[in-house]
Batch of 2 targets.
Target 1
Amino acid sequence: MSDRNEVVGAPIPRARILRIPVAEKILAPFNQGDLDSLCGVYCVMNAVRYLFPELGREKSIDLFQVLSESLTTNSVTAHETVGLGIEIPTVYALVGAACDYLQEVVEAPISMAMLTSKVRRFDDLWAALREGLRGNQVAIIGLSGRHDHWTVAYRMTARTIRLFDSDSMKVLQRARCSLRDRRVPYQIDPDEIILIRRGGVVGSRF
């Protein structure tokens, strides 16, 4: 009986507390787009979104599916699309697929053309692109340098390019751009610029 009392009266040992190490700094989660190279697809989506604001969410989703199917048709692998990024021939094919979709769904004429490849001086590139952006037009531009990226330009001045961009870029300063000079942050290749216009004759050369 006494032994039993001793057991009952014995102090209850504290439960062991498992100390799990916690990171000193809680990192923010990755966002969609942080690690992938889908800007080549989104630049086409955003060019259409800028020119056709009435398209709406449902048809935009349909267009995204059309672009995805176009990638498959052009034998572009998932690794190229997501990991490496797509090149100008594929972007051009995506714009063509978007034009076909818009003519069928919106029944609005849309035309596309490459910027002239004869540009060899940055001043000439700036002038040609500025001329191409007049009117109801946008340009898909391939950037390299600090940021390898496909973006959409919708307006230019003598010193800036205004962007409608999937990575929240708003403006490019002329002083920070060049054709091939890697001493400045951004290089613009005249062979990687697609002009897109709402209206006009499909397939016109502007």
Target 2
Amino acid sequence: MRLLNALVFVFLLSAGSFSQDSASSRPPAQQEPQTVLKATTRLVVVDVVATDSQGAPVTDLKESDLVILEDGRPQRLGSFSFQGANAKTEPPPQLPQDVVTSVPRSSSNSLNVILLDRINGESSNRVYAQDRLVKYLESGVTIEPTAVFIMEKKLTLVHDFTTDTRVLKNALNSVRPTGVSRVLGVDVAASPYATKGDFHTDENAIEVTLRSLRLLARTLAGYPGRKNLIWVSEAFPVNLRIEGVPTGSSLNPMIIARGPASGGSAGGADANAATTRQQETTQAQAQGGASSNVPLNSGRSFEAELAKIADALMDAHVALYPVDAAGVGLANRQAAQSNMRDMADRTGGRAFYNRNDIEVGIGSSINDGSIYYALSYYPDNHQWDGRFRRIEIKTSRPGVSLRYRMGYYAVNSEDSDKRNSDELAQEFAYAMGFDSPLFAGIRFQARITPPADKSQKAMVSFAIDPHSITFESKDDGLQHVAVSCSVAVYTEKGNPVKGARDEITTMSGALKPDEYQRMMRQYFPCKRTLDLKPGKYLLRLGAVDRNSHLLGTSNASLVVP
């Protein structure tokens, strides 16, 4: 990948278009096209895990062995490919010392994210779960690129994607839990959320959980391939809801009958049968275990948030693998286990519970999601009304079980882009945090130029890959685009620098067809200047597409003489 020799851009908004005054250069080298779900192309992608009767992966399926249906109607398969385990990652591109990039450093068919839940459940189980994870990493296993996050008051990245188990182990040991339970306030302790049956959580914890899952979906959306989210927690107070399920039911509204014909197996201790689930739900309800997304006697509903999260996870190709940190439990764990199986079913993952060897569940999750088939099709139904569409995949091969996400929301691209501006601003502010995970939705390179003398300012020049941003074609025949860039400044310890203004520069305009074609062969520019005192600084660089709402971030260092 090559950067412009001189990143000097002049951005003119004349005649409603862009013009550039820069050296000509080829665009950044693009990775091989990845199959993604985009409302603009109407291409639906489904990752399918196939196993035999012993649970071993089936690696020799052919396209003719599979039939895909949407809402019961057969669909024409557009592409079919086998994705095998590939622990080797491509080395990061060689860039000049003063250039950074938001392009992911890991390139693999599948990525793993281990989410350690420290906000739901009891502290003793959190300590035990982390100890077992460290034991798994010490066992000499070979893993796909894996990242570790912790969910406490906010979502925090412990370590970015790596295949080095020793590095992950050391990172985990540096953030060990304290072993002391959270002290609940009077209002929280009196809440029906707190310590009810198998919950051990509260309303604030549920809000943090929902926000963290949504941010993870946004973060992982920029990475190609399948993403396996291994959620290690004692309490699973939320579930992924889809439309058509009545609310206010006395039973768990999240548990929906799903027969064997639908091809999904949640992989728990019991068979995935509708009657079993209904019995477990009834028993859990009778025993007082709150198991729905809204605990009993609570006035707060999370239905809207859950729908957004379900959509975001499915759109980002994230499969959930819940691992119960409570180990072997009592009967009042049945509600949480039902939630776990349901979450796994809907996203094509697998749930692990009723085991004290948590490391086995973590290892099985990593192995399970590393070998799969990538399928795609263009739906026959062209009515993009925002409704949920159920996907069903069948195989003619006897003895083969298939797991995949249950469907997707047929969201109109124009409607999906009309998100609340405050919500987008909050996400961008979070992405610019020093300890926030890196976003890869927008791909850019940026050159950091320190001031030559005290009379000048430092400069950050972005060169954004135009293939990663959205140009909207409107009735005027022009291609409309709007991209913002920003630079947040921190001390070497990661604290915000006082007086450093985190301003946002927005570039917007409309391109004629020939200008658009020329832009796609070059870079989209954005520039920020920094007026800083002499010293050493850490920078978080970020860009956001105002049309698609995708984000891209990167880290850099700067020395001001």
